[in-house]
Each structure stands twice: as C-alpha cells, then as structure tokens.
Amino acid sequence: MVVIEEEAYLEHYGILRKSGRYPWGSGNNTQQRGMGFLDWLKDMSIKLGISEAEVARSVGMNTTDLRAAKTIAKNEIKAAQINEAFRLKKKGMSNVEAAKRMGIPESSYRALLAPGAKDKNDVLNSVHDKLKEEIDTKKYLDVGSGIENHIGVSEDRVKIAIAMLIDEGYTRHYVKVPQPGTGKDTLMRVMAGPKVTYKEVHQNRDQIKTVVDFSEDGGRSFYGIAKPMALDPKRLGVRYKEDGGAVEDGVIYVRPGVKDVSLGGSRYAQVRIQVGDGHYVKGMAIYKDNLPPGVDLVFNTNKENTGHKMDALKELSADPDNPFGSYIRRQILEKGPDGKDRATSVMNLVNEEGNWGGGGINPKTGEPYTGWSKSVASQVLSKQSPVLAKGQLQITHERRQKEFDEIMALTNPTVRKKLLEEYADGVDSAAVHLKAANLPRQRWQVILPVNTLKDTEIYAPNFRDGERVALIRYPHGGTFEIPELTVNNKHSGSRKILGDSTDAVGINSKVAERLSGADFDGDTVLVIPNNNRRVRTSPALEGLRHFDPRSEYPPYDGMPTIDGGRYNASTKKIEYGTRGPTDRKQHEMGDVSNLITDMTIKGASHDKIARAVRHSMVVIDSEKHALNYKLSYDVNGIRALKEEYQGGANRGASTLISRAGAEIRVPQRDLRRASKGGSVDPVSGKRVYEPTGRTYVDRQGKEVLNRTISKQLAETDDAHTLSSGTPMERLYANHSNTLKGMANTARLAALNTPRSVYSPSAARTYSKEVAALNSKIDLALRNRPLERQALVRADAIFRQKKAANPNMDKETETKIKFQALEEARRITGAHRSRIVLTPREWEAIQAGAISDSKLTTILKNADMDSVRSLATPRPKLLMTPAKNQRAQSMLALGYTRAEVADALGVSLTTLDTSIGG
Description:
By secondary structure, the protein is α+β, with helices and mostly antiparallel strands.
C-alpha cells in the first residue's frame, strides 16, 4: 500500500509546447507565445465547446498543469506589457499616446506604471528563481506540500513555478520513501535538473533535500544516543544464582546519592548500563541502601558464578551508534564545553517511573508510546467463560454504537465526515484484532520485586487495600497462569521502594514465576480487580511445577541454535556463519502460542496443555540461553498435539482466535480512485480496491505479481469462515461481523455527508479566530517538508545498516528504523505540530467562517481528541475545592491515591485529573 501525500501529476514535455518547437508563437517573443496559447484555449473552449479536462488531456496534461500554463502565459503577457509601458514612458510619450500605441485604455496603461506593479508581477519569477537555485545547488529537491509555507508564497505560485521549470527542461519525479513500522510509503515529489532520470533520483534518494536548511551538528549518533558513560567494573557487584540472584533476576540495585549512577528523578527505571569497554547490563534499576563498600550497583542474575564477572554481562553491539541495540528513551545529559551533549550518568533509560508505556515507537503516529491499551485481548478473554466473553463483547458493541450516534449528531458536515472516516477505520481494525472492552479499573503495571511480601499478596497503590486482584501477563497460556492476590498497601518494605507509584506493583518471585516465568527487568502485567471472581483462575499446572527450561534442555557442543548459529561449548558462545542470526524464534513462538490457544478453545486436558506450555517456555528462552528447542519439541510430543488440535504436524492455527491476525499475502492493490467510482461501494459501504498489476522479476528470472501483507480476518466478509465451530469462536465471529457492519454503515454515512457551507459574514464576525486558524495551519504545514526529510534520512540510515548486516532479524530492523527516524526528526526539527482548537475557534468553524477545504486541512493536522471534546462535549468531572484540599492533605499523610479516591467517593481518574490540574 502507498500513502500518497502529494497530488499526482501527468508527465509531459513542456507547458507551452503542443507540437513543433514554438506552436504558440516565437520563443523570442514571450508575449506573442502567451497570447497564442490563450487564443488557442479560447478557441477550444468557446468555439468548439471542449471541456477543460478534455483540453488538458489533448496536450498530455492534467487540469492542474493546464491552469499553471494559463497563469504562466498571463504572467508573460503582463511582464511584456509592463516592460513596454516603461520603455514608452522613458521615450517621453504621454500616457494617452503610449496607451494608444499599446492598444489599451489609458487607465490600464497607468496601472502598468503604478508603484509595485512590476514587483507584484515579479513574484512568480522570484519563486521560480529560488527553486531553480535550490535545485542547481542541492541536485534533488523535495517540492511537495508545505514548502510554500517556508518560502512564504501560495501553493499555486509554487505549482506554477514548478511548471515553468519543467517547461525549461527540468525534470519532476515521484519517489517512494518507506514509513517505519507502517508497511506504507510516502510518495515524494522531487525536482531535478534536465535529463536526470527517475532511476538516478531513486538510487540517490538519501540525497533528496528540502528548501529548509538545518544543522546536523548535535554530537550524537545516527540514533540520537550520546556516547554512553562507562561504569568501572570494580563498582559493579553481581549477585549470582547461588547467592539468591535468581529470585530477583534482572534487578539492578543502585546506591542513592551518587551523581554518575543517578536515575534522574525517578525511583525506578528500565535501563541499559555500559560496564567497562565491551559489556553492559540491562534490567530494572531501583535505589537501595547499604550496598557493599566500594560498590555502587548490584546486578541480580540467574547465572552461576564462573569466576569472571563479565560472563554474567552482555556484550555490546558491534554497531557503535547503538551499543545496546535498544530504543533509548532518555539519557541524563548536560552540555559540554564544546556545546555538545554528554552523559553525566551511566543510566540509559528505556522506560521510567511515571512514563511507562511499553517503550518503543507507535508506528501509526511515529511517536513514543505513552500508555497501554485499555482493552482485553482475545488470547485472554477466549480462555475465560463464555458468559464473561459475551458480556465484554456486548459492551464493546454498545460503546461503538454510542460513539457512532454521537458523531451523527454533529451539525458540522466536514467534521462529521472526518470523524466517521476515522471511526470506520478504527472499527475495521477492531474487527480484525478482536479486542474487547476493558474490565472495570483494570491497569497495566510494571512488576518490581518485594520478596518480603507473601505468596498471596501484592503491593498495588492504584488499587484498594484488601481487595482481590487477578494478574495476567502476555503471552498468556491459560487461567493456570493467573494468580489471584490480595492488595496489601500497608507493607512498609514495598512503600519504601514504590511509594504511591502510578505504574508499578510489588510482588515476590514465586508470583512472578507463575506469570509465564516473568522477570523483574521491565515485564508488565494487567491487574484486574476481582472481588466478584468474574475472572477465572485455576491452580498452577502440576506439569509446570519446578520446571526449569535451562536445566532440562541445555545446549550441547555444535548444536544448531534457533537463531541460525552453532553453540560452542568451550567458549559458551554462539557462532554464526556468513548468513548471521535469523528471526526463527518469532515464528516458533507464534506457532506454539497458536497451538496453546487452539488446544484451550477445543477443551484439551491440563496434562496436554502443560506439554505445550513447557515447550513454549523453552522457545521463549531458546535464543537468550541457547536451549535445545528441537529436543523439547520431541520430548513434549508437539507433533502429536498439532495433529490432534490443528489437523496436521505441518498445519498452523485452526481456530478463529488464532487465525484472525495471521499474515496473508494478497496481490498489491490501491484504493479505487474517485475518477473510477471512488474507494467506497455506494451500496454496501465496503472498501473498494483495484489491483495495481505491478510485477517484479524474481531470482529465477520469472515475472511475478507484487504482493502486500494483510490479515486473514481482514480478507473475509464473514468471520465464521475462519472458525472451527466452537461456542467461543461463534461469539467472536459474530462480534467481528457486527463491527465490520458498523464500519460499512459509517463509510456510507460519510459518503453521503455534504460539504460545509462557507459564510462570508461569519468570516467577518470571527476575523480574529480565522487569522489564528490560518496561523496554526501554516505552522502545521511547515512540518511536512521536515517530516519527509526525516523519512529520507531514516531510510538512508537503515539501508546503510542493513548493507553492513544483511541478515539482521526483523526485530532489529524495526528498532533501527524507529531510532533512526527519531534522531532524523531531532536533526531536521520535524515534529507533529498538531492544531489544538480553542472554544472560540470552534464557534467560528461551526458558523462557517472558514471554507470546507481549509477545514479539511485543519482536521488532517488537528489533535482529534480536542476536536472530539469540542464536537461532543462531556462534563469534566472535577472535585470541589474542599475535596481537593482534603485530598492533598491525605496524600501528604501517606495515604495512597486509591485510598484517597475511596475516602472522597470519586474515581481514581477524577482524583488524578483534579489534583493534576
């Protein structure tokens, strides 16, 4: 799929050339040429009655280029007239005499001599000259939307200047640049010099520049990471398995009050720390008093002491630009004497207190994640009772229907159309991902170790003291991996570590072990209040008690590893050939996860499920610890399980839940253009695609169709076709079909929504608001060239890194793309300048003070949450000043936020909103 940001153009030879060299008049007389062209257009439209579109097609143009040609011709005529007027004036002719000589009224002659007339007419030429200079200097120039905001002229002026350059022989090309994480492309409009081919521009797309210049001197790497500080190995203590390190595996204890190991204001954080010249540790850093003398960090590990401290650490990546191979959200930096950033602490933070969201970049928005999903995944709910699943799916339908009704009640048609289109896309996605409505007060929390807590307790300051909660970790095997715990927020040891944390809970290591073998290195869990026991739990499976994948399935010398290497027993390292590591682990993990889901839905016994879960635990750790996953496959009888529950040893997912999100490759297609009937079927409301027909030649020399990746459930109109017929699958199939129907209904409603009506009187009444909106549009559009430049740079970095390591796995590729884009945005200054509307500006929009096209531009660049809140206002629940003061007092006395909310009779969200405001 291709996201086309720019308007498409037809290529043609020249603007004012129909046939021959100068069909509209001599090139030595621009006025004659321009007049000849305009006379020809008049003949075509008036005398012959040919439409503008037909005229454009007859000379190999589209209407945009034809209009540009008309403007150029008029500009040439006007320029020639001005020059002639000044020439006659210089000769001493009177105004009347000169006007008679030129064959124009005397008033028109005076207008040609008016101050600023020449300058005004020269604006187009100055834009042309600016772009020509930029192309000649930078070779390949991005001339897409937004550059007009930087040059300070209208978009039409830029288009006309481009047309003039093409008429002079300059070339225009459309180059695709990948958008990291989306699987889509941005189509860039690029100008280059005469005789420059598309192939040349595409091969050198990393050299495409924009009219905006910026400095690249930031003292950072390709990924925006300042050179990390290295900790002296003598300052690191290691707590090995035999010392008790296994129960807190992944935890890094930090001495408080030491500047160069500071967490920068957080009490806990997920970090990467370089140790010495070639190693690093990763895990969850927590402050702790009374560390051994001379030691400022203590690393807990489940590894055994080999006598060499560095054996317990990881080796730095071979890529000097990102030695940890991770997305680093924040470093603790200061400006050095040279003006460049330098680290003041060894801590490189992936996530930290108060900003937990899973880390990484959201591929849809290109921005860091700031929060977890509030829904419940099908892999969890499908393993619960049908009653609970049916109830949550029904709530999902009701919420979606309410949202649709609220959008349809909007009076502004352009806003309604935009929100309907977004709604349809969101519901379509939900129909494939099969997520259900959240359970009351559920929260994602990062787990921290507090081993003085009982096996039945949890410290969870966001929940009520004494209530029962269920904990679920993804990937989720079944109800036997859901511990039910009692909240103990009076535990002093926990309070000292966590305080009144907004995003963390404390549990002991036995509870973590039951959570699919969770570690304390940043793993997260879904915490759900469960006093009513709606969430089913079951005892841990006997077949999993005391199961240790590392001791059961250790590697042997020369063993092929899951990532394509071979294990060397003498060095205890994996050696790779020329191909390098592969990403087979992801395939194996997906395969066994689907098997567990299918077995659970089809009612497999606990003993059989335990076999599959044991194998999944081996696969999870197979890459990290070089485990013998093939032996596990045989010993646990996975082949037989697949034959029984998936229909064959080489078969895959067999139920709707596991098949829904499975990738499928379909012939490449684009949404159908409006000229061919539009991308929405006017009867059904379904999306309408048409095949591109594009092909490529494979390694065998065979021409094959290009294909694009989709999901199985997205490619069927009836979800029941992917079901094996179990009651749970029927619930989810009906759910998916209902959502798809809602999406189609919304698209039909959007298709039949009229355009907004512009009101000149409203524009005058709200003139200040209109000016403010124009300013906000300009600021938002200024970011477009910068964002495209960031994409170009990020793509170049990725291709460079890929060339150096052609066999890198997909996970590494994804990290590189996102990190490179973040740094490219920092360098170019690209950022999402989302338009946030004020209530008064919303009034202006509702009154019709701006045109439909301008409102569409605003909505494309707006913070849609603010638009929704203005369009469908809801009362903001805040506490009274007296309650607010009481809340502050209780918090100061050490009460948790959950206790304060209960005492005041408000929700935790209302409390946070009130005291935060």
